Amino acid sequence: MQLKNIAIRYGISTLGLIIVALGVAISIKSNLGIAPPSCPPTILNLQWTAISIGTFTWMMHLVFITLQALILRKKFKLEYLMQIPAAFVFGYMCDASIWLFDAIGSPATQYWAQILLCLAGVVLTAIGIKLEVVGDGWILAGDKTVAVLADVFRKPFGVVKVWFDVALVVLTAAFSWIAFGLLTGNGSTVVIREGTLILALFTGLCMRLTDPLIDKLFGPLVPKNE
Prior knowledge:
Elements: H1 2-30, H2 39-47, H3 53-72, H4 83-104, H5 111-135, H6 141-153, H7 157-180, H8 194-218
Helix pairs in contact: 1-4, 1-5, 2-3, 2-7, 3-4, 3-6, 5-8, 6-7
């Protein structure tokens, strides 16, 4: 029974990771800007194209885990190391999703299509994040790092999340300027633009609509802790 419970939890969480990865890929396809957590891996890929976005993603997550260990020290729990396989799983799911959408067609060029793809990214990300929470299996290093910082500085998670995302976007813009002389990307692929703001602001709002549906569909499947 215990193994069945674990399989259910990680199955739902893995589905969440897949859907978030699809959200990342479709936001890249919009060419209108992508969510803050995916900005650094994408801009690094534009500079070093031999290394995939997914690879840069799990590398970034390993940096986040190291940061957690340095902050928490003796309070860093062994279970937090589960973020490592989650990083690899998510990274390669991002690569698979990007490959899928690349096979379908070129990035959008008409503004209305870019907006629609961006909003689709919002919905997919909102659903995927909720499934991760419902499954309570995998935990992504970015979210855990925000939780650690919120605890250390005694600030609300939402406030720290905003500043964390801002920091990622600023670092991305700085690297973009150094590498390409632009703040938004390399000139053909857009990393930071209004889509970044849309994904940062509207994902949380969208979750207010999608969360009840996810709870209704998947909540009964998840075993309750006695």
